User: Which sequence fits this backbone?
């Protein structure tokens, strides 16, 4: 196959950052995605509809004139998020959900949730309003091995939460383990998961063997090869519970290549070609459209995109670095190539 035409894709999990960085991030994702669910972990975080409205305006101001792109903003769940905050969010056209970060789990998560018990009225309001809960699914107990954090979060928090709020739509973000795949496959209706390109393409050997590769360091961290294979099977299965969410999360070169580097991989520049590689390797290119363009829209109860995008099978080089505000970002697959490129869009 030398080309593939699919319904125009979306990205159901991305970090666009803020300020001067938006000129890079917004326009990279807009080259292939019609919509993107934008994470709220700025500093300070996006906690209210007023914050979301202001952030939405900054994103749109960074977008190249004439480009069609819709940012869908999420609110940052904190210990003080109120029922009124949820009602306001549910009434907003630009807010699509609320993001749960366990405090300390990842970048800019210090303001995250310390305990869910006190938030039961807030979660009940989300359930009643049918406002989705997006979850970074890791425990932050320092006694827990970093490679077990997702599995134990599912056991300790997610399974009881899904039972306590049986109508709450839940997205387990950027899953990394066979345990997460099994949970989503066996879960009640209204539970889904996003999967990133890096977790489909790489495992912890790629990050650690022969020297540490900081630009593959992300959270949740890359796992063993058998977990990667379980993710590839889930993504290419045609199961609508699994769909695209790049978790593209840029950091400058100097903050990645340091004594204590930041977590995150930048994939917005070539996400669809990277996913296409995986689906081609799994003999499942006929299922790429569902994963990238249909299932996420259906779960979020948004209309499927009109128009199409054609992918061309053509080796394309990836730069060693890309401009990023006043610095540079090292993209996923930097200095190498991808086997597909984005062609005509309609």
Assistant:
């Amino acid at each position: 196959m030398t080309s593939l035409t699919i319904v125009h894709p979306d990205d159901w999990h991305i970090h666009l950052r803020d300020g001067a960085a938006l000129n890079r991030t917004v326009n990279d994702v807009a080259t292939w995605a019609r919509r993107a669910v934008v994470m709220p972990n700025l500093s300070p975080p996006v906690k209210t509809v007023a914050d979301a409205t202001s952030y939405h305006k900054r994103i749109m101001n960074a977008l190249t004139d004439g480009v069609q792109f819709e940012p869908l903003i999420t609110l940052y769940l904190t210990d003080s998020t109120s029922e009124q905050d949820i009602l306001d969010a549910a009434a907003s056209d630009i807010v699509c959900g609320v993001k749960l970060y366990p405090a300390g789990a990842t970048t800019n998560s210090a303001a995250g949730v310390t305990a869910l018990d006190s938030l039961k009225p807030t979660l009940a309001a989300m359930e009643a309003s049918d406002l989705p809960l997006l979850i970074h699914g890791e425990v932050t107990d320092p006694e827990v091995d970093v490679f077990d954090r997702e599995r134990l979060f599912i056991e300790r928090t997610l399974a009881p939460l899904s039972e306590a709020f049986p109508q709450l739509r839940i997205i387990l973000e950027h899953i990394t383990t066979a345990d997460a795949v099994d949970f989503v496959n066996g879960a009640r209706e209204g539970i889904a998961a996003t999967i990133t390109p890096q977790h489909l393409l790489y495992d912890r050997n790629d990050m650690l063997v022969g020297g540490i590769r900081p630009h593959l360091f992300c959270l949740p961290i890359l796992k063993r090869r058998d977990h990667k294979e379980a993710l590839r099977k889930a993504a290419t299965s045609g199961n609508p519970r699994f769909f695209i969410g790049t978790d593209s999360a840029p950091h400058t070169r100097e903050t990645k290549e340091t004594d204590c580097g930041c977590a995150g991989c930048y994939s917005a520049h070539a996400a669809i070609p990277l996913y296409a590689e995986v689906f081609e390797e799994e003999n499942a290119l006929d299922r790429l459209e569902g994963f990238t363009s249909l299932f996420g829209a259906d779960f979020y109860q948004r209309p499927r995109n009109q128009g199409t995008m054609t992918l061309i099978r053509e080796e394309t080089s990836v730069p060693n670095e890309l401009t990023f505000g006043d610095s540079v970002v090292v993209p996923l697959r930097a200095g190498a190539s991808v086997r597909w490129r984005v062609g005509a869009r309609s």
In short: The chain is about 35% helix and 20% strand. The chain has a mean pLDDT of 96. The longest strand covers residues 308-317.
